[in-house]
Design brief:
This protein is of the alpha/beta class. 35% of the residues lie in helices and 21% in strands. α1 crosses α11 (298-308).
Length: 318
């Protein structure tokens, strides 16, 4: 869920246009609404994890209902989103977890993408165990003790080793390198997606079974399944520069927004609004919980949040 250089995606899965007219292959054509001359339209990139969906849902609702724009959303993975943004196929990325190579290429060198400020949320990836397990084994939160408990985490997929559960195999994480470099008796096993990982964690928690998982904050699931982070060797600047040699924790990353440069200059009230869009982890989790756990549509979840927090969003429109 989320450097997300540690979260960057290795390949394009699909660039699907999500509109009332059905799906279009964004690898072959641009959104018909992006950069439309004189049209009050905005195209937002939306990533697969629910926190990113919450950002877009609220931004879309306000752009449509308060500013009179038509909003198109395009589902695109993290690294391809930068290409789409640079080319004007989308106008904005609402939540980026840190891609320094793309930032240098498109923001600093080509200047086709413009920084739009912080989202107001700090992201962090780590390894977590359920808090009920910590109560039984308080020292399990130190990585140096993980091998002592590896047998607790064995599954059919991990064999004789303990299972370290990851989400989508399309995310590039440091976990395999960490297991190797810290000499841990664990096997990284991918659940397949954020949703599949959540389903497994909720099932483990229901049965009060042990699990060790790659996870990230902000994330609404912490309210449903309390978890405690395992302390990995402290993060220091540059300790993750060589992906094969990583032996440190993931950093804390202030999440950022980016706009297509032409849109940033000519997007009028929409671009000004997106630059001002900042909210808290609690705000994002509130909307995420409604979408993922309460199964509300993103539009209805956004409406409920907007109705309850006028003081927050009115500042974005001023």
């Amino acid at each position: 869920m989320r450097t997300r250089t540690a979260y960057s995606v290795a390949a394009v899965t699909s660039l699907a246009l999500l509109s009332g007219c059905g799906a279009a292959d964004m690898t072959k054509q641009a959104s018909p609404f992006a950069n439309a001359q004189g049209a009050k339209t905005v195209t937002l990139s939306v990533q697969s994890w629910v926190g990113a969906q919450a950002n877009v849902a609220v931004a879309q609702y306000l752009l449509e209902h308060k500013l009179g724009y038509r909003v198109d959303t395009v589902q695109v993975d993290e690294v391809p989103a930068w290409d789409a943004l640079s080319q004007g196929r989308v106008d904005a990325i609402m939540e980026d977890w840190g891609h320094p190579d793309q930032e240098k290429r498109y923001v600093d060198d080509k200047k086709t993408i413009t920084r739009a400020g912080g989202l107001g949320v700090t992201g962090h990836i780590g390894w977590y165990v359920p808090t009920y397990l910590v109560k039984q084994h308080p020292d399990i939160t130190d990585w140096k003790n993980l091998n002592k408990y590896s047998s607790l985490f064995r599954t059919a997929e991990s064999g004789s080793k303990g299972q370290l559960m990851d989400g989508s195999p399309s995310y590039v994480t440091n976990d395999k390198a960490l297991v190797t470099n810290l000499k841990l008796n664990y096997q990284v096993v991918f659940a397949g997606s954020e949703a599949a990982q959540i389903t497994q964690m909720k099932q483990f928690a229901k049965e009060k079974k042990p699990f060790l998982t790659y996870w990230y904050a902000p994330q609404w699931l912490f309210k449903k399944v309390p978890m405690t982070e395992v302390k990995l060797p402290a993060y220091k600047e540059g300790c993750d520069a060589d992906a094969a040699k990583v032996a440190c924790a993931y950093p804390h990353t202030p999440l950022q927004k980016y706009l297509n440069t032409d849109f940033a200059k000519k997007g009028g009230k929409a671009s000004a609004f997106l630059k001002k869009f900042t909210w808290t982890t609690e705000d994002q989790n509130e909307v995420s919980l409604m979408i993922a756990d309460q199964k509300l549509s993103p539009a209805y979840a956004a409406k409920k949040w907007v109705d309850d927090h006028p003081a927050t969003w009115k500042a974005w429109l001023s």
